[in-house]
Design brief:
By secondary structure, this protein is α+β, with helices and mostly antiparallel strands. 35% of the residues lie in helices and 21% in strands. The protein is built from 17 helices and 17 strands. The strands form four sheets. It has a seven-stranded antiparallel sheet, sandwiched between helices. It starts with a helix and ends in a 21-residue tail after the last helix. Bound molecules: flavin-adenine dinucleotide (FAD). Residues 28, 64-71, 74-75, 86, 106, 128-130, 133-135, 137-139, 141-142, 144-146, 195-196, 200-201, 321, 405-406, 409, 442, 445 line the site of flavin-adenine dinucleotide.
């Protein structure tokens, strides 16, 4: 098989030495790692198809990887798979400014996509802190969310078509980007969020949004999560330009400041902080200030409209993932509850976690408008399963989702049943079995390998 793979992509792009494979075999969190039989790096859709055909003929399972910034272990091997890296599929086609769409290779990073769209006077609606490495293919495969879902929706809302290689090497393509198209099953959206289990995405047709040059950011101090929700309601009502509403807490800010050596944003600490961003064609600062003044929930606030000041305020929120990772290997949970249930979840989380692991240190932050919290637990590595179980059961009791944006990957497979019914899981299994009957694509990701059907 390795000989065949070399013939397809060239010797330099089949990595078999342990040292060369290593960066691909451990995920961003360092919690998930496994050996690959080799890493193969195709550079075109045809090469991906040939690689998949060769692996399928040899009965070799594959794991699909983009930028390897996923946080649930979905893009690293479980053990012995051929790792197919898509980072060489970096072709960006010219922006279609009439349709406001662009076609991008699966390996294009989010940052490069932003630069490309902006150079054409448009923008891309999804943004997240891993922008320099996360790829278009990974973002689509995980239906990534990020900091602008409030305004533009998650990846699913941006994808108008895609091209992918099925588990037998067939190329399926729908890249016309039609705004209206009711001609049967929507394969594009079936593959969006499928976490590399149904096909390998090679190219994507993406919707672009207007480039809004005028921005204002507020960092707001509040008494509790109820106050954060009250501020959100006021901001949604009064600010049509609102594009982000993010939340973090006092202990997260402390950790970020220690890690990055940042000064305190206010003269004294507060329990809860919300970052609000407004984006428009004309300066939204006055409207943002008026809204803050009108909200009884605001205890203190600082506003920036220049680029340096905006970045400074965003840094307090965006450095959380990095600061937590520098402090240890966290148990990472990414949950979502109905907004009304958010204060109760935040109140119950610490006791739920310390009941399992008294020395554990939970750090919580997230996307306020979607009720999406990233629950990171430091100091609980030895009891990660127990902590995960306790938190996800608490989330289920609040009628929430056990994964709101990172996906199920390998990390959450055992808890899928807390969010999806047995009938739903059986239906997903039937789709998986029909598209990948030998279970070769990302085995053990999203659905347990070997639980039914031919996918073992
Ligand atoms: C600092 C930081 C901040 C983050 N913030 C956010 C956030 O706000 N919102 C959010 O949603 N996520 C966030 N993430 C998670 C991560 O960036 C996203 O899940 C992203 O979509 C992963 O893209 P990737 O290219 O790195 O994919 P990878 O990590 O390589 O893979 C992720 C999954 O997609 C599959 N996959 C990758 N490429 C393909 C392809 N071409 N075809 C089929 N399957 C594929 C993999 O098999 C795997 O299951 C963050 C991560 C970090 C490190």
């Amino acid at each position: 098989l390795i000989k065949q793979l070399r013939a397809i992509v060239g010797d330099a792009h089949v990595l078999v030495d342990a040292d060369l494979r290593a960066p691909y075999e451990t995920d961003w969190t360092r919690r998930f790692h496994g050996p690959a039989s080799c890493v193969v790096r195709p550079a075109s859709t045809d090469e991906v198809a040939a690689v998949v055909r060769a692996c399928a003929a040899a009965g070799a399972p594959m794991v699909v990887q983009g930028g390897n910034t996923g946080l649930v272990g979905g893009g690293v091997p479980g053990g012995g798979e051929v790792l197919v890296s898509l980072t060489r599929l970096t072709r960006l086609e010219p922006v279609d400014d009439v349709a406001a769409q662009v076609t991008a290779g699966a390996g294009v990073t989010l940052e490069k996509l932003h630069q490309h769209a902006r150079a054409a006077g448009l923008d891309f609606g999804v943004d997240l802190a891993a922008r320099s490495a996360a790829t278009v293919g990974g973002l689509v495969a995980t239906n990534a969310g990020g900091i602008r879902v409030l305004r533009y929706g998650s990846m699913r809302a941006q994808v108008t078509g895609l091209e992918a290689v099925l588990a037998d090497g067939t190329i399926v393509s729908r890249l016309t980007g039609l705004a209206k198209d009711n001609t049967g099953y929507d394969l594009t959206h079936l593959l969006t969020g499928s976490e590399g289990t149904l096909a390998i995405i090679t190219r994507v047709r993406l919707r672009l949004v207007p480039l809004l040059p005028a921005r204002a950011v507020a960092l707001v101090a509040l008494a509790d999560t109820d106050a954060a929700l009250a501020l959100l309601a006021t901001a949604r009502d009064g600010l049509p330009t609102l594009s982000a509403a993010e939340v973090f807490y006092a202990d997260g800010l402390r950790l970020v400041r220690e890690h990055a050596g940042l000064p305190a944003p206010f003269s004294e600490p507060y329990p809860v902080y919300v970052v609000l961003e407004c984006a428009a064609r004309t300066d939204p600062t006055d409207a943002l200030l008026e809204t803050l003044a009108a909200s009884d929930a605001v205890v203190d606030a600082t506003v920036a409209s220049d680029a340096t000041g905006r970045t400074r305020l965003w840094t307090f929120r965006e450095t959380h993932t990095e600061a937590i990772s520098a402090a240890g290997v966290p148990v990472k949970l990414d949950v979502c509850v109905p907004l009304r249930a958010l204060p109760s979840l935040v109140r119950d989380l610490p006791a739920t976690i310390t009941a399992v692991s008294p020395a554990a240190r939970p750090i919580v932050f997230g996307h306020l408008a979607e009720g999406n919290l990233h629950v990171n637990v430091l100091g609980a590595e030895d009891v990660s399963t127990e902590v995960t179980d306790a938190v996800l059961r608490l989330v289920a009791a609040h009628h929430g989702s056990v994964s709101s944006e990172h996906g199920i990957g390998r990390a959450k497979v055992a808890w899928l049943g807390l969010s999806r019914s047995p009938v739903e899981i059986a239906t997903m299994r039937r789709i998986k079995d029909s598209l990948d009957p030998a279970g070769l694509l990302n085995p053990g990701v999203l659905l347990p390998s070997g639980s039914s059907g031919a996918a073992r």
